[in-house]
Amino acid sequence: MSSHTTSALTLFLVFFALVGLTGVTVWVAYIDLGIWSTPVAIAIATLKASLVVVIFMEMRFGQPITWFASSTGILFLILLIGLTMADIVSRGWLGVPGK
Amino acid sequence: METAPKRTNYLNADYGIRSWLLTLDHKRIGILYLISITLMFLLGSLFAVLIRLELLTPAGDFVQADTYNKLFTMHGIVMIFFFLVPSIPAVLGNFLLPLMIGARDLAFPRLNLMSWYVYMVGGIFTLWAIITGGVDTGWTFYTPYSTTASHSNVLMTAVGIFITGFSSILTGLNFIVTIHTMRAPGLTWFRLPLFVWAHYATSLIMILGTPVVAITIFLVGIERAFGLGIFDPALGGDPILFQHLFWFYSHPAVYIMILPSMGVISEIITCFARKRIFGYEFIAVSSLAIAVFGFLVWGHHMFTSSQSVYAAMIFSILSFAVAIPSAVKVFNWTATLYKGSISFEAPMLFAMGFIGLFTIGGLTGLFLASLGLDVHVHDTYFVVAHFHYIMVGGALMGYLGAIHFWWPKMTGRMYSEWAAKVSAVLVFVGFNLTFFPQFVLGYLGMPRRYHAYPDEFQVLNVMSTTGASILGLGYLVPLCYLTWSLWRGPLASANPWKAAGLEWTTPSPPPTENFETTPVVEEEAYTYPLKEAEVV
Q: Are B263 and B399 in contact (CB under 8 A)?
């Protein structure tokens, strides 16, 4: 059993950081970043998720097996996105006869 | 009637409805699931009966097309999300996992009870959706039909399935933590029963895949309710994206159904062949391989969509690859039988049926993984036959085998062996008569999900409906003799099958605490033939 604790100040700071990053997400959505819109939105979301996992879920105190388990989730997310993108990116590679 | 000598066990340790609804005992929670999923199975079967009655004649004369759409949708939803997915894990996994690893309970008993309540809440939402008009999208909820065109209870059903998904996640989480942390002294990973390995692999799929389908169905709900453009092309969405997200879970979900059955078959085969299972390590690791490979093949459901040809080629190759660990299991079970001292008690008959039907289901899956052939048989009865051979012929045969194998342990009573053998034969014959003609129908071009069909398909459809009647009888017979056995069945000893495994070393039915003292494991699994001292 882990004896580590996170101070209330840290938890509040993370909470306000998450609220602030949500505001940034909304703000960025109104700016035309071209092809960078999605990567920027995903980067902010990743930062927010990392804060939740590392601070709120106390993964920084986690044992190697806990890190391994959470990494498995990330690996499968990469598989989901990667194989889906394999379809979306290559859809136009083969021309349609007659077009 | 034979009465049991007075001994405290999990069934008589406490009385009253409250003692059941607030129980933290994994065995009682398993029984709660058994009752719940049996009711769901009866409901799903009722829809199947109505479908087969409609298909008895070529004309759409029994129900209208709209009603038929709702019937096959609700049959699929009830059977998949509320029966097949929770069947073996939630009933037998709950009951047996702690017993098999020498533990007092699962790691999180309260979470376990909560998972049953979550399942019931999801079930009530779905039942309410059915009662108030039903849903007609097919169990696959394909967009944009489900988000823009359907006028049925899509939202309510989606909420029900979303909630039930969390029951699955909680069960998977509980199993993984339990297997990691609560094994008896000496019970190393490669001494675990293969049933436990199968449930470990199943749990991985449950916790990695279920959140994806839950969010996907949630997205369908918010697009339908608020018009947010996610899947609808008119709103800037991509309907094929829905198929990717849906099948990322729903193909591995087939392995949630079949892997636990494979674990059951490993236990039964080795017991009734009186021989240590052949290739233990390979069967164990093949469960994990199926769980991992199962996540990489979902695109084979989308060969005729606008999915890229290059992605389709990758998915086709990967789909062929997943056949390898499945074949490893079938070959090892067969090799176990070689020179075994085989007897054909009822659980063994169900296990033999499983191997035959699963093999046909698996091999026809390779037809569907082939890019060219799939174009011909896609969305025909060939597909319907294929997945029923896997999910009913495989998963349900395994479930019935498991219920018969561990019934004496669960209830402390034996059932009529003769009646059970009759049931196994009825199920096997009825199943093949129902679904084999559907392979032919599909190859000849009969599409699925239509309530009317050309006259030339009638003979095969009549065969199929006749088979369904026999199959239904095969399912009803166990309901009768197993219920009868609860009051009139002969008392079961601790180990009526002379099987290996920790669960057989404790009395039938087990005490609440499972074991008087924590067992210590000193040898590998399946040390058949058992020594005299091990047979209680």
A: no
In this complex, do A76 and B241 lie within 8 Å of one another by their Cβ atoms? no
Distance between CA B399 and CA B355 in Å, rounded? 13
**Sequence-ordered list of residues with C-beta below 8 angstroms from that of B497, at least 6 positions apart, any chain:** B271, B272, B345, B347, B405, B408, B504
Cβ-in-10-Å burial (0-12, 13-18, 19+) of B389 comes to: buried
Nearest CA in chain A to B213: A80
Dump pLDDT digits (tens) for B154-174. 999 999 999 999 999 999 999
CB contact at 8 A, B107 and B177: yes
Cβ distance of A91 and B307 shorter than 8 Å: yes
CATH homologous superfamily, domain B17-534: Cytochrome c oxidase-like, subunit I domain (1.20.210.10)
Residues B52-101 have pLDDT tens digits of: 999 999 999 999 999 999 999 999 999 999 999 999 999 999 999 999 99
Token look-up 């988000």 returns B147
CA B223/CA B234 separation, integer angstroms: 12
Q: Distances in Å between the alpha carbon of B364 and those of B287, B388, B389, B390, B480?
A: 21, 11, 9, 10, 34
Q: Do B244 and A93 touch (CB under 8 A)?
A: no
Please list, in sequence order, all residues whose beta carbon lies within 8 angstroms of the beta carbon of residue A92, skipping any fewer than 6 positions away.
none
Q: Determine the pLDDT at residue A70.
A: 87
- Find chain B residues with C-beta within 8 A of A79's C-beta: 295-296
DSSP state of B315: H
- Nearest CB to A90 within list B238, B244, B310: B310
pLDDT in tens, B437-463: 999 999 999 999 999 999 999 999 999
Q: Which residues of A touch B298 (CB under 8 A)?
A: 83
Residue A40 CA to chain centroid, in angstroms? 11
Beta carbons of B311 and A90 less than 8 Å apart:
yes
Return mean pLDDT, chain B: 95
pTM, two decimals, is 0.94
pLDDT digits (tens, 9 = 90+) for B458-514: 999 999 999 999 999 999 999 999 999 999 999 999 999 999 999 999 999 999 999
Calpha distance B145→B167 (Å, rounded): 28
Residues 6+ apart with CB under 8 A from B532: none
Contact call for B311 and A83, based on CB within 8 A: yes
Q: Domain spans of chain B?
A: 17-534
Q: Which of B246, B308, B309 to mutate to test the interface with A (most CBs of A within 10 A)?
A: B308
ipTM of the complex: 0.85
